[in-house]
Task: structure prediction
Amino acid sequence: MSSNSAVVVGGGISGLASAIGLRLAGWHVTVVERAAVLDDAGAGISLAANGMRALATLGVGEAVEAAARRQYTGGTRTPDGRRLALMDGAALERELGAPIVGIPRAALHRILREALPAESLVIGAEVTDVEVTDVDTAQPSRVRVTYGDTTLDADLVVAADGIHSRIRRRLFPTHPGPAYNGSTVLRAITERPVDGLTADFELTWGHGAEFGHIAFPDGRAEWHAVLNAPAGVRYQDPLTEVRRRFAHWHEPIPALLAATRPEAVLHHDVNELATPLPSYVAGRIALLGDAAHAMAPHLGQGACQALEDAVTLAAAVAEARSVEAALARYDAQRRPRSQTVARDARRAGRMGQQLANPLAVGLRNAAIRLTPPGAMVRTALKHADWTPPRITPRAA
Result:
C-alpha cells in the first residue's frame, strides 16, 4: 500500500510495538497516550521465544536482549522447596532459535519508545471520540480521532487502550467485557540485589497460591504473589500480608521479600476477556493486545501475544492492497491463535496456582513429577513456537 496514516490509541507494549511495525511498513503514525507521566508500572515481565522473534522483526530485539537476563535455570517447586519440574532454558533456546528472557517492564517500554521519533508520541492526551466507519460501506472514509483540541483523520485506528478499552466497548456494546478470574496479584521489584538468588525464573505452587520471581541482569528481581481471593480485596500493608502468607515457604522467597520496600508493592486483580470477541476489527479500526484478548497470566503469554498482534498487523497492511483487506487478514490470523492461548492460560491457572483442594494438589504434583522431560518441553513449545511474518511494503 502507498503511504498512509494511522493513529494508535494507547502507549503500552502493544501500542508502541504496533507503531514501530506500521512505520516499518511505510506509514505515518501518531501514538496517543492518556497518562501524563510514563511510570511504566508493572514490575517485570518474561518474554518467550515468540515475543523475542516479534521484537527482532521490529528491529529492537538486540536492545531488549542487552537489557534482559536469559532464563536458563529454575522451574517449579512446592512450598517446602521440593522440585516439581526443572527448567532447561538453554535447550528451549536451541529448539526455538530464540531465548526466554526476563526484563523490567520499564526497560521494555523505554526501548520501544526510543525506537519511535519523539514527534510520534502524544503524551497526556485522552482520546475522546473515534468516528467509527460503517462496516457495510463499500468505500469507507477515513477515521476521525479527537483528543483535546486536536482532530486527526487517519486511514487506520489501532485500539491498544488496554483491558478496559473504551473503543472496544463502543465497537461491541453488547460484549460483557473483562471478568474477574478469581485471582489477585501482589508484585514488586526488589530494592537491591538478592543474595543467593541462583534461579533465573521460578514458580512455587501451594494451595490456591503461587509465588514466583524473575531475575534481572543487575541482581535485582521481580517477585509476584498470586492468591485466590474475592474481587476487590486490598490490604492495609500489602508487604506485611505477603510476608505473613509466605513466611514458611522456601528460600529465596523470604530474601526476596526482605529486599523489597513496602511502597514498591503493586496490587491488582486478574481480569480477562473470558468471553471471546467476535472480531478484532470493525471498519478501519483494529484491536490489539489486552483490548482484544486480555488473558490470565498463567502462561506468561500476554505481552508475547500483543507483540505478535503488532507484527501481524504491520505485515498485513504492508502487503495488502487495501486497509480492509489487511484488517481481514489480521483478524483471520490473530483471533484464532490468541483466543486459543487465552483459553489455555485460563486452564493453566485452574490446574496450577488456583488449585486449592489438598488431594487435587497432591495428584497434580505427582503427575508433574512423572511427566517425561520431553513432554514438558513440548508443552513449553506449544505457544512459543511462532514464526513472524516479514514486514515488506508493497511497491507503489
Remarks:
- The longest strand covers residues 179-189.
- Residues 323-351 form the longest helix (29 residues).
- Residues 176 and 275 are 7 Å apart (CA to CA).
- The mean pLDDT is 92.
